[in-house]
Amino acid sequence: MMHSRLPDVGTTIFSVMSALAVRHDAVNLGQGFPDFDCDPTLVQAVTRAMQDGHNQYPPMGGWTPLRLAIVEKIAALYGHRYDPETEITVTAGATQAILTTMLAMVHPGDEVIVIEPAYDSYVPAIRLAGGIPVFVRMQRGAAPDSPFHVPWDQVREAIGHRTRMIVVNSPNNPTGTMLTADDLRALESIVVEHGLYLLADEVYEHMVFDGLRHESASRYPALAERSIVVSSFGKTFHVTGWKIGYAAAPAALSAEFRKVHQFNVFTVNTPMQVAIADYLRDPAPYLRLGEFYQVKRDFFRDGLRATRFTSLPSSGTYFQIADYSAIRDDLPDVQFCQWLTREKGVAAIPLSAFHERPIESTLIRFCFAKKEATLTDALERLAVV
Question: Is-contact 214 170, C-beta < 8 A?
């Protein structure tokens, strides 16, 4: 009999809810991807790259002009200049970068602190590396619309002699909250004091609202020296199916990362790297992304006011957490999402899916990275729930 490396892992809730949405002709606000196209200029750039003969392997670390463009972007935004040759690695999406980080940095028996609710790839990646996840839950106030925050005192208490790494995600999927400058200073103090490493998942770095500033780990020198910072062009440019991201880290950490990367995927498809390098010459598309998604967020939140859902604050990402306790407090969140999909025709994701251990929750996650017509359809259905 096969001895599974991930015995507790089955079909993800995202696939389950999407399949249920198809079966019941529901509006799918569950899985986190846009239902609109990317900039045609970017598609044209990919075509041009293929026609120009960029169809063979690029360098293992990534197409050199793309790495240079990433360096300039990070330097302009966060004031930290990485070396394009030794400190930037282009990856097959952020998920590959996360797994590669764990396989490179975490040894059997090492503990990794995961702050919940958390993206669902962190824990399997830790376990595949032989590590042990240690969970710290974000906290909220008693009011239904209270925001989430990280209890740094509990993070400190969770650190033991086997702790090797902390994973943070800001802007955070699923909660839509962001780490502040005070949060980053607390995190920096913890990492430096205990000699830990940090995996900073910043794939939603450009989806920031209300005039707030994304606090990248790259912005804090002592933290940057111990961090692998991961981002995603798929999220930024509405091309999630292209699976292109990157990892930025000091040379010593990048060298270990690349040891695994070269045997994991070796490198990433060339035409899209060439196209993105060309597209990054104009910073406007990513600098305006927050404004673009804030319009969608506000449209969706305004619509939810006509329903019995309570919206929690959403400062970043393209997700909105909502409390359904005024509608059906008799149903756990998984059952509520199934009921909402079957009976009301809108698919969402239960917050408990982002926790390793069972929780009692009346919170669900909607994705508003959709056309206005899609959001309008969903809101009309939610208004009669």
Answer: yes
Cα 8 to Cα 19: distance, rounded to the nearest angstrom: 21
Which residues does the chain have with pLDDT short of 50? none
pLDDT at 3: 83
Task: Report d(CA 306, CA 43) in Å as an integer.
Answer: 39
Whole-number pLDDT of residue 224: 98
Report CA dihedral (73, 120, 293, 77) to the nearest 10 degrees: -20
Helix (H, G, I), strand (E, B) or coil at 273: helix
CA-wise closest residue to 364 among 316, 312, 315: 312
Q: Report the distance separating Cα 320 and Cα 174, nearest Å.
A: 8
Structure tokens at 2: 């096969």
Distance of CA 27 to the CA centre of its chain: 22
- Write down the pLDDT at residue 14: 86
State which of 248, 282, 316 marks the end of a domain: 282
Residue 145: its pLDDT value, please?
87
The one-character DSSP state at 316 is B
- Write out the two tokens for 74: 């990070």
Q: What is the pLDDT of residue 261?
A: 98
Separation CA 126–CA 109 (nearest Å): 10
User: What letter would DSSP give residue 313?
Assistant: P
- Cα–Cα distance for residue pair 351/175, rounded to 1 Å: 9
Q: CA 293, 299, 303: angle at the middle one, nearest 5?
A: 145
Instruction: Kindly report the CATH number assigned to the domain that includes residue 26.
Output: 3.90.1150.10
The separation between CA 378 and the C-alpha centre of its own chain, rounded to angstroms, equals: 24
Claim to verify: residue 296 and residue 199 sit in the same structural domain: no
Q: Residue 56, Cα to own-chain centre: how many angstroms?
A: 30
Express each pLDDT in 153-176 by its tens digit.
999 999 999 999 999 999 999 999
